[in-house]
Design brief:
Elements lengths: L1 E2 L8 E7 L7 E6 L8 E9 L2 H8 L11 E2 L3 E9 L11 E4 L9 H4 L14 E2 L2 E2 L6 E4 L5 E3 L5 H4 L5 H10 L10 E5 L5 H11 L3 E5 L3 H10 L3 E3 L2 H12 L4 E6 L4 H9 L1 E9 L20 E3 L6 H12 L7 E5 L3 H9 L6 E5 L9
Parallel strand pairs: 8-9, 12-13, 12-15, 13-14, 15-16, 16-17, 18-19
Antiparallel strand pairs: 1-6, 2-3, 2-5, 4-6, 4-10, 4-19, 6-7, 7-11
Helix pairs in contact: 4-5, 4-9
Length: about 375
């Protein structure tokens, strides 16, 4: 094992663990993992909190194929401090972000660069979602290919790129062919993912961006980040688009809410040939089919997270100053209160936790 400093044989660390289904996380002491083989040990410098964490905590036993206890936290930025004997020792001391989809690297999807669709995951996606994540002082990553190095980006900005930035980028990239020429994109929900989608759209497409959110502060944020039109309702947003451009529908709708209502509104907003992209996890449903009241050539998709190649592209945008997450930084001890605020909808942008012990050696 290669590491930056010797550690005590029985070193421990603090971690927020889910011990029982339907209960909040608990702060406990656990052993510091020791990397073996291809594994790398990352000192956590920042970790984002996500609605997916709330979903995991709320589940009843048997809903998810996860073993408890489980350390949550799947948006992780940090520094490699030790590697196993088969890993690249030059990674030690490098800063970066963890790609949370811990794929096998060998199945047909992994071989063709679609590792976010790895067939071997079996429901246990990876970091914080089936495997121990980053709400701890250290996180053990199973392979160096799940760590993307970064230069010049603060860890508090890097962490949200692991999910919020990556998921938004992947959803947009999949439909970039529909965002060429004179076109419009409707962003529903300017929250942790939506505010990054607005920036990614401005940086990578020429589309007319309409951002919709019922919260005035979210609309103001979208306007500041580059949305051409903002509104508190889909109808108002489309009306402003039509007045300014003559376009009467959206070529792509990015729904970062995913409720039955937003999915219905998104489908109704499509122009002929338009695409409804459901990213949000509010568990809504939409009936689609030939002969229903949908525009000609409609498409509906539900992208999942993003491949490692997408994360590389997201980090590149951040390194070039084209992508800057809006974050609220909280301390490690304030995680339970931060989750409560996230649950109540009182967050614009992303909450990022900075461990109180960053820079210290394990105990």
């Amino acid at each position: 094992m290669t590491q930056t400093a010797p550690r005590a044989d029985l070193a421990t660390m603090s971690a927020y663990r889910l011990a029982r289904w339907g209960r909040p996380v608990e702060l406990v002491d656990v052993p510091v993992p020791v990397p073996r083989g291809a594994e790398v040990l990352v000192e956590v410098q920042a970790v984002g909190l996500c609605h997916s964490d709330l979903f995991v905590m709320s589940c009843e036993e048997g809903v998810l194929p996860y073993d408890l206890p489980l350390t949550l936290g799947h948006e992780v930025a940090g520094r490699v401090v030790a590697v196993g004997e088969e890993a690249d020792a030059t990674l030690v001391g490098r800063d970066g972000v963890v790609h949370g989809v811990w794929s096998c690297g060998e199945c047909h999807n992994c071989r063709r660069g679609q590792d976010n669709h790895c067939v071997a995951l079996g429901g246990r996606v990876g970091c914080g979602l089936g495997r121990d994540g980053g709400l701890a002082e250290y996180v053990l990553v199973p392979d160096a290919r799940h760590f993307v190095t970064a230069t010049g980006v603060p860890p508090t900005a890097l962490a949200p790129l692991a999910d919020a930035g990556l998921t938004a980028y992947h959803a947009i990239r999949q439909h970039r062919d529909a965002l060429l020429g004179e076109c419009a994109v409707l962003v529903i929900g300017v929250g942790g993912l939506g505010h990054l989608a607005v920036q990614i759209l401005r940086a990578t497409t020429a589309a007319r961006i309409v951002a919709v959110d019922p919260r005035p502060e979210a609309c103001a944020l979208a306007e500041r980040l580059g949305a051409h039109h903002t509104a508190m309702s889909v109808d108002d947003g489309l009306a402003r688009l039509a007045t300014a451009t003559g376009l009467t529908g959206a070529d792509v709708v990015l729904d970062f809410v995913g409720s039955a209502e937003t999915m219905r509104l998104g489908a109704e907003a499509l122009a002929p040939g338009g695409r409804l992209v459901v990213v949000g996890g509010a568990r809504g449903t939409l009936t689609v089919g030939k002969g229903l009241d949908l525009p000609l050539g409609w498409q509906v998709s539900a992208p999942f997270w993003g491949a490692r190649a997408d994360l590389l592209a997201v980090v590149d945008l951040a390194e070039r100053g084209l992508l800057d997450p809006v974050v609220e930084v909280v301390s490690y001890r304030d995680v339970p209160a931060a989750y409560a605020r996230l649950h109540d909808g009182g967050v614009t942008g992303r909450i990022v936790v900075v461990p109180d012990t960053v820079g210290e050696l394990p105990r």
